[in-house]
C-alpha cells in the first residue's frame, strides 16, 4: 500500500480525529465525515468521564455476572439496566457478553489485550495535546479508587488481573485517605492510587482542538452523515452520504455506536451495541475530590473538569432510538452528594447539567481494530466501550499503520473484526 492515499474517515470523535492526525503524518490525504461538530454535545467523546485510565483493562462482564441479569431487568436505575422493550433485540449481544466473561481465563485474555492498547496512553495524549496547543487539558497526575473496606478490594478479580498485566498502585489506609481527601465520606476506609493514569480537563474541548489540529495539517471536514461504503470488486471507490458520494481509495469506520450500518453495507455483520451512558456535572461546587476518583460501591467516576465536578458511569441497554431516562443522571447526582457530604443539598438546578450519550461496545469488551473482510481498503476502529477516550491515542496510530500497510505496533489479533465473522 503506497503512501498518499485519499482516506475518508467516518466519524470526528476522539478516534476519528486522532486517526486523521496520524494518517496525515503517514502522508495520506484525509477527509473527515461527520454531521456534527467535533467535540460537540452530540458526541460520546464530549460526555466522557475524562479519565485517561491506562489500567482500565477489565471488561464489563466477569464470571458470575449472569446471576445478576434478573436484577438488571428489574432495576431501571441500577449500575447496569436493560429495558424490557429492547431485550429481544439485545439478547444475541447479551449472550455473547455473558459468554465473554464466563471464565477468569477469558477475562484475563482481554485484560492483556487492553493493556497493550492502553499502556502509556496518558503520555500519548499529553503529546497530542501539546501538538494541538492545549497542553493544559491533559494532566498525568494519577487517579484514585476508593472502597468501603479492604475486603472489597481484595475480593475484586479485576485488581488481581491488573497486577498480573503489570499495573502498579499505591495503597492507602483510612487515615492516609483522609489526609488526601478530607471531603470524602468516612465510610470509605481503603483506597488505591494508580499513579500512571491521568485525566482530561475537558474532553469536548480536547477533541475540538484535535480536530482543528487535523484541519490545520491539511485534513478536510465534510458535514454529512455517512450511510454506506461503495466497492468495485474488492476495491473501495466511495463513501456514500446523505449529501452524495465522496470518492476515496481508503476509508476508516470510526462512527462509534453508529458504525454497525456502515459495516453491514459491505457484508460485515458485527455485534455492536450502545451502552447508553449519562453524566451529571455541578458547576462551581463548594467541595469535592482533590483527585479524580472512582467509588467502588457507586460504580461511578468523579472528576474535576474545567466546567465543573463531573460524575459519570453506569450502563443502560436500550438501543439508539429510546428516549433518555434522566432519573439515571439524578442517581449519579445523589451518589455525588453521598460521597461528599459537605456539598450543599440545595444546589440550584441551573448549576446542575445532565448529559446522555452512546458508548459503542462490543460484547467482549474489546474494540474492533482491523481490516474489513470485504476489502483491505477499509479499516475498522470502533467499539471501544468504556475506554474510547483513553484508547483513542494508540488506536489512531494503529489505524495509520494499517492504512500504510505497516506492521502494527501491538498485536491486533485480539481486536480483529474476524473474531465475530
UniProtKB/TrEMBL annotation:
One function term, GO molecular function aspect: oxidoreductase activity
Domain (FAD dependent oxidoreductase) ranges: 6-402
InterPro entries the record matches: FAD-dep_OxRdtase (IPR006076), FAD/NAD-bd_sf (IPR036188)
Record keyword ATP-binding present: no
GO cellular component terms, semicolon-separated: cytoplasm
Keyword set, alphabetical order: Oxidoreductase
SUPFAM superfamilies: FAD-linked reductases, C-terminal domain (SSF54373), FAD/NAD(P)-binding domain (SSF51905)
PANTHER family reported for this sequence: GLYCINE OXIDASE (PTHR13847:SF289), SARCOSINE DEHYDROGENASE-RELATED (PTHR13847)
Annotated protein name in UniProt: Amino acid dehydrogenase
Organismal lineage: Bacteria, Pseudomonadati, Pseudomonadota, Alphaproteobacteria, Hyphomicrobiales
Amino acid at each position: 500500500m503506497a503512501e498518499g492515499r485519499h482516506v475518508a474517515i467516518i466519524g470526528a470523535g476522539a478516534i476519528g480525529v486522532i486517526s486523521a492526525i496520524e494518517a496525515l503524518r503517514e502522508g495520506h490525504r484525509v477527509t473527515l465525515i461527520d454531521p456534527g461538530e467535533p467535540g460537540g454535545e452530540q458526541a460520546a467523546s464530549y460526555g466522557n468521564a475524562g479519565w485517561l485510565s491506562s489500567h482500565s483493562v477489565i471488561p464489563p462482564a466477569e464470571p458470575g455476572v449472569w446471576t445478576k441479569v434478573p436484577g438488571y431487568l428489574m432495576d431501571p436505575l441500577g449500575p447496569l439496566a436493560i429495558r424490557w422493550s429492547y431485550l429481544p433485540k439485545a439478547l444475541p449481544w447479551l449472550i455473547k457478553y455473558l459468554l465473554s466473561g464466563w471464565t477468569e481465563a477469558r477475562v484475563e485474555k482481554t485484560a492483556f489485550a487492553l493493556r497493550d492498547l492502553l499502556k502509556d496512553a496518558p503520555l500519548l495524549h499529553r503529546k497530542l495535546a501539546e501538538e494541538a496547543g492545549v497542553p493544559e487539558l491533559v494532566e498525568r497526575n494519577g487517579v484514585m479508587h476508593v472502597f468501603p473496606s479492604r475486603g472489597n478490594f481484595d475480593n475484586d478479580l479485576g485488581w488481581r488481573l491488573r497486577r498480573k498485566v503489570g499495573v502498579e498502585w499505591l495503597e492507602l489506609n483510612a487515615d492516609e485517605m483522609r489526609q488526601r481527601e478530607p471531603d470524602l465520606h468516612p465510610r470509605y476506609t481503603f483506597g488505591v492510587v494508580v499513579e500512571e493514569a491521568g485525566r482530561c480537563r475537558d474532553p469536548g474541548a480536547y477533541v475540538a482542538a484535535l480536530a482543528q489540529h487535523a484541519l490545520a495539517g491539511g485534513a478536510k471536514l465534510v458535514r454529512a452523515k455517512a450511510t454506506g461504503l461503495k466497492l468495485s470488486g474488492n476495491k473501495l471507490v466511495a463513501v456514500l452520504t446523505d449529501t452524495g458520494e465522496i470518492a476515496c481509495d481508503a476509508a476508516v469506520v470510526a462512527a462509534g455506536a453508529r458504525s454497525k450500518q456502515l459495516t453491514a453495507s459491505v457484508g460485515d455483520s458485527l455485534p455492536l451495541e450502545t451502552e447508553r451512558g449519562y453524566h451529571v456535572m455541578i458547576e462551581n461546587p463548594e467541595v469535592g475530590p482533590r483527585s479524580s476518583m472512582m467509588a467502588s460501591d457507586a460504580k461511578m467516576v468523579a472528576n474535576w473538569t474545567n466546567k465543573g465536578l463531573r460524575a459519570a458511569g453506569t450502563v443502560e441497554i436500550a438501543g439508539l432510538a429510546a428516549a433518555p431516562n434522566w432519573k439515571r443522571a439524578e442517581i449519579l447526582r445523589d451518589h455525588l452528594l453521598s460521597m461528599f457530604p459537605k456539598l450543599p443539598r440545595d444546589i440550584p438546578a441551573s448549576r446542575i447539567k445532565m448529559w446522555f450519550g452512546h458508548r459503542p461496545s462490543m460484547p467482549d469488551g474489546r474494540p474492533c481494530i482491523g481490516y474489513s473482510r470485504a476489502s483491505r481498503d477499509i479499516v475498522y476502529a470502533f467499539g471501544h466501550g468504556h475506554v474510547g477516550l483513553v484508547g483513542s491515542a494508540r488506536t489512531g496510530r494503529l489505524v495509520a499503520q494499517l492504512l500504510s500497510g505497516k506492521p502494527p505496533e501491538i498485536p491486533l489479533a485480539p481486536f480483529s473484526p474476524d473474531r465475530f465473522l
